[in-house]
Write a structure and sequence with these properties.
The protein is an alpha/beta fold and 584 residues long. It has 2 domains: 11-300, TIM Barrel; 320-568, Spore Coat Polysaccharide Biosynthesis Protein SpsA, Chain A. 35% of the residues lie in helices and 17% in strands. It has 20 helices and 20 strands. The chain has helices spanning 43-56, 67-72, 74-82, 102-120, 140-147, 203-207, 210-223, 249-256, 262-272, 278-281, 291-295, 298-306, 335-349, 368-376, 393-403, 423-426, 453-469, 486-489, 499-511, 535-555; strands spanning 11-18, 62-65, 86-89, 126-127, 152-153, 173-177, 180-184, 189-192, 195-198, 229-233, 274-276, 320-328, 353-362, 382-387, 408-411, 434-440, 447-449, 482-485, 515-520, 522-524. A 7-stranded mixed sheet has the order 14-13-12-15-18-16-19, sandwiched between helices. Strands 1, 2, 3, 10 and 11 form a 5-stranded parallel sheet that branches. A 4-stranded mixed sheet has the order 4-5-7-6, covered by helices on one side. The longest helix has 21 residues, at 535-555. The termini are far apart. 42% of the residues are buried.
């Protein structure tokens, strides 16, 4: 009697990027890591979706984790590891190896691996570079990985004819460096007419018709002995993620198109093929991290710190009271981004200043007021004021100033186009005799990032005209990011309540003899939500306001300033507000 032999299905490799939507490669040219903390995190809910799907199919995957994510979300990393999945390293930030020297890459690997091992409690033996290695000039990074003791890497993407002279690099292979070796698990590709086309997952799964790309995967399964290496990111399971107004049209198309397709496509592959981790393929045992790494885990640190007796506390210097006014009008989309930004601002400025906040809802018709009350209604240092109808950003700022109880009052936009941490330089510039300090991206030491050229041209043209009429020869007259002396501003009456009122407020202070300073700052394009400015109406309004200010200047008595004339020049004070944009 013959026995039927059932062939064991071929096992392929499934890899997952454990990252959030604002980490995505398509957006990295527009969003700097220093801004990541501001965004609403959707990492936990998306990771749980992915874990549930993998549990259904009893499939384990290799999750590649950035050090930044491991430090901020260790509980998520630990949950992934607890469910039996492998944890790999993906660098500290999403930096390409082409942005680093070998020494910098080595340091980045060490920093990120320490963070990932501390979060997961597992030894990390694998790496994936934040950007795919697509050319032979990138292969030096594999040498560094081998020297650092990694068992494998999964970063290589043979694309078109980039590795045509080394055809084995399309498949799992060993990379040799003297007596050291590193297994490489490249992203799988389809070869046609001597060209390699990516079919490994992620964006390719979303953009290319499913039947077409699955036929190529099936062809790989039939004709190749090497495993198919597939990947996706957990954020690709989230078609409700916030839309970021950054990058080119192509980048937004690449990032957002067909997000709802990912979950059912991955499910179809899990139903069709057998997948496992890289470590399983290499028969590498699951190992605990070193004792030092386990001791660095957050809950261990917190327990240890609670057992340490506090030493004597030095008396603290009294904090300067400061109020920050923020106007809102139909800004529900930016509220979570703003809350995270504000928490970071309190942590930085709260060491030196006694901060109070006044949020002015300027007649919003969406759920802005509800979300403000949910987020800040219970905070002792927050006051929420509401206009019954929309009166404009300048009117809202004045309402907030009059509501304030401190002499130093700051104003900022809720969309955080200026980094609020710049107040650390603006507030000290409000010295005795100065009534306003305004941020200036057009200052020679200022900067503008990703703002459309047409908008810059209009704004700079307006500043040119205001410079011809007003006493203060500033570079910027229209910024909402300012510090005021309340006693000098609270009694001002302006005719323009909207964006024009911001320039009018400065102009009226100028014409009545107040001293105004400007500090260089960095202006960035709005990331979330939509601007409320009506361009044509604003341009016409500026021309009318300029005419009115000119009339007031020529018909008013000469102004005598209390500070030397040099205080009116754009070069003073020499205060720098340029945000540090280095990655590490």
């Amino acid at each position: 009697m013959s026995e039927t032999v059932v062939a064991k299905p071929k096992r392929h490799i499934l890899t997952v990027g454990l990252d959030d939507y604002y980490h995505a490669e398509a957006l990295q040219g527009s969003i700097h890591p220093s801004q990541w903390y501001r965004f609403e995190s959707r990492l936990e809910q998306n990771t749980l979706k992915v874990l549930s799907l993998l549990d259904r199919f009893q499939t384990h995957a290799t999750f590649f984790v950035m050090g930044w994510v491991a430090e901020r979300c260790p509980e998520i990393v630990r949950e992934v590891a607890r469910r039996g999945h492998e944890i790999g390293n993906q660098g500290y930030f999403n930096r390409s190896v082409r942005e680093m020297t070998p020494s910098e890459f080595r340091d980045d690997l060490a920093r990120s691996r320490d963070a990932v091992e501390a979060a997961s409690g597992l030894k990390v033996i694998g790496n994936r570079c934040a950007r795919a290695l697509t050319d032979s000039q990138d292969l030096w990074s594999l040498d560094v990985l081998a020297q650092e003791g990694y068992v494998y890497d999964s970063s290589l993407l043979p694309r078109f004819r980039s590795f045509h002279s080394q055809p084995w690099r399309r498949f799992v292979h060993r990379h040799q460096l003297g007596d050291k070796e590193l297994w490489e698990f490249p992203f799988s590709t389809w070869e046609c007419l001597g060209f390699a086309f990516p079919i490994a997952g992620g964006n390719y799964f979303r953009q290319i018709p499913h039947d077409l790309i699955k036929s190529r995967v099936d062809d790989w399964n039939r004709t190749n002995t090497a495993p198919f290496v597939m990947y996706f990111h957990v954020w690709e399971f989230d078609d409700k993620q916030p839309r970021i107004n950054m990058g080119s049209s192509f980048a937004r198309f690449r990032h957002y198109r067909n997000l709802g397709k990912t979950s059912w496509v991955i499910q179809d592959y899990l139903e069709t093929y057998d997948f496992g981790t890289v470590a399983e393929y290499l028969s590498q045992p699951r190992q605990l991290a070193t004792q030092a790494a386990r001791q660095a885990m957050p809950e261990v640190n917190s327990q240890a710190s609670s057992q340490i007796s506090p030493g004597p506390v030095a008396p603290r210097a009294p904090k300067t009271p400061v109020t920050i006014v923020v106007p809102f009008y139909n800004e529900e989309a930016v509220l979570k981004y703003f809350v995270n930004t504000l928490d970071g601002l309190e942590a930085d400025l709260g060491r030196k200043y006694d901060l109070q906040f006044v949020f002015v809802d300027d007649g919003s018709t969406d759920n802005t007021l509800v979300r403000l009350r949910e987020s800040f209604g219970q905070r002792h240092n927050c006051t929420i004021v509401r206009h019954s109808s929309n009166r404009g950003v300048a009117a809202a700022i004045l309402t907030g100033i009059r509501q304030s109880q401190t002499e130093i009052v700051c104003s900022m936009d809720c969309d955080c186009t200026y980094d609020p941490r710049g107040l650390q330089q603006l507030i000290p510039a409000l010295t005795d005799g100065v009534d306003m300090v305004t941020a200036s991206p057009y200052h020679p030491k200022g900067a503008v990032l990703n703002v459309p050229p047409w908008r810059l041209s209009l704004s700079k043209a307006a500043s040119f005209l205001y410079r011809r009429i007003l006493h203060h020869k500033l570079h910027t007259y229209t910024s909402c990011f300012r510090v005021y002396r309340r006693s000098a501003v609270a009694d001002l009456h302006i005719r323009e309540g909207g964006f024009l009122g911001v320039a009018e407020l400065l102009g009226r202070l100028d014409l009545r003899g107040s001293i105004i300073r400007e500090c260089p700052a960095t202006l960035e394009v709005r990331l979330l939500g939509t601007s409320k400015m009506k361009v044509a109406r604003t341009v016409i309004g500026h021309l009318k306001l300029l005419a009115e200010l000119f009339y007031l200047r020529v018909t008013s008595p000469p102004v005598v300033f209390a500070l030397p004339e040099k205080a009116l020049t754009p070069s003073s004070p020499d205060t720098h507000l340029l945000r540090n944009r280095t990655s590490a």
